[in-house]
Design a protein that fits this description.
The structure is a homodimer. The first copy, chain A, folds into 2 domains: 130 residues, Creatine Amidinohydrolase, Chain A, domain 1; 257 residues, Creatine Amidinohydrolase (Alpha-Beta Complex). Helices cover 36% and strands 19% of the residues of chain A. Chain A is built from 10 helices and 18 strands. A 6-stranded mixed sheet of chain A has the order 4-3-2-1-5-6. In chain A, helix 9 packs antiparallel against helix 10. The first copy, chain A, starts with a helix and ends with a strand. At the A-B interface, helix 2, helix 4 and helix 8 of A face helix 2, helix 4 and helix 8 of B.
Chain lengths: 410, 410
């Protein structure tokens, strides 16, 4: 073997080795996740669970497909796949339609399920009725909420993905002052940020749960556009540029005296972080600096006082108390339409459990990742405040969005 | 009044006048659409129809909201709105949850519906069960398909939006040669095209129907990435850059001898066009030119021979015949996974009726807009072909995507 071939062969075997280590790691991850779902199936005394959503297919398999992932109380799952036709997984059984599942089950010596868990929170009514009829009318049990609760507690691998995403997110936000130039609109600046996000590996879309979560790559709100209420379930709204997507930047000129809040997606890995930073155009009134400092202080206090075991409602109460103390209630989380909300879990979807609201009954658990976003909307000025993502440990919160928190002057 | 105030006042009244004309036009449009849905409700002998999807809310109201649009066989619809709270429409009744709808109906002297049409094709199972229970368990009838059929035939206003979108789409595609530089990957070029799309008014996301239509701003396929099968319901696939979105560009270097197919979204208006153009990097084998010319010829033949009354299946048969004649069947609409499909309707969603397949029973109607996309995938080279959007008239097809069709050398 000449030296070049030898080198190449060494390099190939190194790549193969990395590939194989990654594959083993991913297999361990997905096996462990399948076991968690199997416990849920057992607890619900169900016979099987069928997974159809991209997020949960990916979480349980490491890839997505058009078809039905069927998980049983024990043993290996079965993958009933419409396409693609080339998945290298021996658990795959190709089908053209759900009506073929009973035959495939029969061939494998499996009975039809009498009690079936499905993602009833996301699967369209007609698709679920068709699936139910195809499988001989099993009783349907909703697994959507329970899967969200299981996914809320992340593995070491998953938490590392959030840290990695946050590190890239920080790099991209660091570019914002250099992307800005005088005379820009919010939308023009957002477009340059979107480009940098893509160049840094953002896949573009990001996943969310629920029917009112449309958004494009995130939100940038300048001046009084931060007051505009939108139909979507985000902390703040914005008018947007289309009646079909009334959300976010609306072409507001970035003029002296207003603030700009940047809450663009942290989707640089399948597991995401969430981060907001705020900017001042040239100069802003004192109240903008005060409200922004309060946001930093609230996030800092929550970081200092919270850990596994803390009630999620308490995080909201800490914020509410501090806001009252400084008399900024009229601007907290909006003006006309105020969100009773201080943050949320984050992971494969941008809005995972737990939810940080005064009525939340949830408790922080080790391995959760939460985004804390105390924000203020100041009429005539704009939105200010920060949002950080934290990982919950036994004795502390770990901040992963390590980006300058002060108001930055553009 | 000084002259400046007078000028301003004239300008304001001009703007107000334009605004008022637009509002009247939109009101006429939405009134006419509501009447079409009312006929469907009457035909189904239903008591009401509840609309929850953004696309159909927009189509029927001109705006979207979080809540329930309730249409009756006659009279004005009612809008049960959770948020935003500031919609200037007297038909709005604010609610916090669907369980409050019966009281609001009662206040208006309306009975609960016994037969209710809903968007069962898109509304999640649990959301529909909750709505059904809230309304006293009416019988459920699916309106999704019928709404799609109604929307497939567009008004003059809607068709003009498609023409306007196509004109901007053409401008953006015209920039591609200037955005390309040697040494780029497919993804790097796509990112520059995305930026131009946004600068030209693209809202970013685009709407589609069905559960397997994830995509980000469109598709660019270079070289053999065009052969990769994806789980999504698009004519061609691509590996993508994330296991959560295995679709489109994957970082393929744009090297001499391969082709690049550009099928980015035409979402410059709520009503969209759809257009594909193909490029050669430096040079390509003869077969690439031949297959591309065949695509142009197929689209041209369909344009010459089709009009209102033509069977949609015939459009596919024309293409199939021409492909056989030139012996290019192994490359038509994919290689390993070939789509039996030559195009689709387009409008507020990218995949509207009619569908142009050999089994389609649909007939072209005046006012439909269709995208015709005969494409070829050449192993070792890449994808070639074009896609045009046509408006169906009584005696002809009108091409609206007026952009150079030849293979362009980059």
């Amino acid at each position: 073997m000449d030296s070049r071939r030898c080198l190449r062969s060494k390099r190939m075997s190194y790549i193969w080795c990395i590939h194989s280590v990654m594959n083993n790691l991913l297999k361990k991850e997905t096996d462990s996740r399948v076991r968690k779902l199997q416990q849920t199936i057992i607890d619900a005394r169900a016979d099987a669970c069928i997974i159809t959503s991209a997020v949960n297919q990916y979480w349980l398999c490491g890839f997505i497909f058009d078809g039905y992932l069927m998980v049983f109380p024990d043993g290996e799952p079965m993958l009933f796949v419409k396409h693609p036709s080339d998945i290298p997984d021996e658990r795959v059984k190709m089908i053209r339609k759900p009506e073929q599942i009973p035959d495939r089950l029969h061939d494998a010596g499996m009975p039809l399920p009498a009690r079936l868990m499905t993602e009833s929170g996301v699967l369209p009514y007609n698709s679920l009725l068709r699936l139910q009829a195809a499988l001989g009318m099993p009783e349907i049990i909703n697994v959507s909420g329970e899967l969200r609760r299981i996914r809320a507690v992340k593995s070491v691998y998953e938490l590392n993905q959030i840290r990695e995403s946050a590190a890239i997110h920080t790099q991209v936000y660091g570019l914002i002052p250099s992307l800005y130039h005088e005379g820009m609109t919010d939308l023009e600046l957002q477009i340059e940020v979107e480009r940098q996000m893509r160049l840094h590996g953002s896949v573009g879309i990001f996943r969310s749960y629920g029917e009112n979560m449309d958004i494009f790559m995130g939100s940038m709100l300048a001046g009084d556009n931060a007051q505009a209420a939108s139909p979507f379930d985000y902390a703040l709204g914005g008018k947007g540029i289309s009646p079909l997507l009334p959300q976010g930047a609306n072409g507001t000129p970035l003029v002296s005296g207003i603030t700009l809040m940047v809450d663009m997606a942290g989707n640089y890995r399948p597991w995401m972080d969430d981060m907001t930073r705020s900017f001042v155009i040239t100069q802003a009134p004192d109240i903008a600096w005060q409200a922004h400092q309060l946001s930093i202080d609230i996030a800092g206090t929550i970081e200092q006082t919270s850990k596994a075991g803390t009630c999620c409602a308490d995080l909201y109460h800490i914020a509410e108390e501090m806001v009252k103390e400084r008399g900024l209630q009229p601007y907290f989380m909006g003006t006309a339409q105020q969100a009773k909300f201080i943050g949320h879990g984050v992971g494969l979807e941008i809005n995972e459990p737990p939810v940080l609201t005064p009525r939340s009954k949830e408790i922080l658990e080790t391995g959760m990742a939460i985004a804390v976003e105390p924000k203020f909307v100041l009429p005539g000025i704009g939105a200010v405040g920060i949002e950080n993502t934290y990982i919950v440990h036994e004795n502390e919160l770990e901040k992963v969005t390590l980006c300058e928190e002060e108001l930055i002057i553009l």
